[in-house]
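Me: I'm a chemist; would you kindly supply a protein sequence with its structure tokens?

Assistant:
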Amino acid sequence: MYERKPWLKFYDKHVSEHIDYPRTTMYNAVLQISDKYPDSIAYDFMGYESTYKQMIEEINQCADALYSLGLKKEDRMTISMPTTPQGIICFYAINKIGAIASMIHPLSPPKQIEFFLNLSNSSFMLTVDKVWPNVQKILDHTPLKLVILTQLGPEKEEIPENPKVQWWKYIMAKSYPNIPKIDMDPDDMAVILYSGGTTGVPKGIMLSNYNFITEGTQVATWMNMSDKDSALAILPIFHGFGLGVCVNAVFMGGGKSILVPSFTPDQVADLIKSKKPTLLFGVPTLYEALNRNTKFQNTNLSFLKAAFCGADTLPRTTKEKFEEICRNNGSNVQLREGYGLTEAVTGICAMPLGEYREGSIGIPLPDMMMKIVELETIKEAPVGQEGELCIHGPAVMLGYLNKPEETRKVLKKHEDGKFWLHTGDIATMDKDGFFYFKLRLKRMIKSSGFNVYPAQVEEVLYKHPDVLEVCVIGVPDEKQVEKVKAFVVLKEPSNEGKEMEEKLIKYCHENLIKWSCPREIEFTKQLPKTLVGKIDFKQLEEQEKEKLNTA
């Protein structure tokens, strides 16, 4: 069924089945856009605007500096930054050198920073001065040769002289020799993003230049993007959605990326009013927050061309409320769902602008193919039958870093001779080629649009000396969609109580990203078990649902 691509007849007029992508590097692709739109604005950061021509000059300066400081082709450099010009300039500069950018959260605790630096084998790092204390703690246990620090706020951190530290503002002000021409294959690894995968242990996802160029061009084409368009980059650049869509895809279309380093609903509402973006990309919690915001409810939205939601299932009430606010303020925009995963950069499936089907994540973008296979097989499932969602196309990853076995489990050769990415997501496809997401095979919690892997949280809690047993689940939550809840059996039950709950949550915050930390801990004398003696997390999930239904 999938070979016939029934979805093609629903493509908008400006979208074709195939796109002619530049077989080049990400840097060269942005350079081509700069040649086309030199005086158009590439990014806007807190009121500072940079044209494409200026941005290329900044990228060239950064590349010359990094090369002179010792970064070479195929070296790895970690970027641990919020959504800022420094992070984006450095990202493309690394690519110009032929090195590889590893993207991590700037608020990662020291142990996680150490893990990512060692997994990626990063010799260079760019981060914010306020993160330096965390980096300093683990510096000697990593391959780092140089840390470049940048300052975001008005107050500069006092950091003692260190031979392994350079400051961004100084390296961007000095003169360096131009780097030599470096040959790089479009299919070479260019970026490492991170996902917990099926086991909960973070895995490095190897993505090529071509992965990013094709996915970005597909999104830009789908949106009919030009240099007249702008998008709010609210999602962070260590996240595939933030980097792949809000930055790279906008650049592939010649548009303006409005960089938002951190946000509150009020800030976003103010930015929408003052910057007038034509495109909005976000997660359900963002749209829900905007729906409740009085500033947004009273903003003229006639400039808004399209709004897309990804990273989690969009509640119908959120969609309808958002669209009602838009209608009341001069825009007929519809909030449309899409689907993507980091193993394919990010969004590779979306609702076409002229169509809507309730509950559907849409249809594949140009050059991407999707199909449903019967569980634990490579056999295509009949139309309408639930099965595992599989993806093929130029955005699909190279594989997992240093994990050939894990790669083989998800990238499988099918009878058509193509390699398909097995997503671990259960879905269906209707006769017109529209896909419907059902649930995750992988045990995963979606909290505020971010992936939380219960096994990872449990592993941390098991290390606490007071914990005997633990099980972590996601509990429905109005603000976050799901919140993280831990069920804990203590070695000494008499220690149960609020004080112990706060102690364990604090311990999690020392070892995990904040959205992975439990919001609530329930103490219990024993955890339910399956017939083979495993902790039965599904039973706990059912118990929580029943509590909500009877509340």
In short: The mean pLDDT is 93. The first helix runs from residue 26 to 36. The chain has three domains: 2-19+205-440, 45-185, 445-550. The chain has 16 helices and 27 strands.
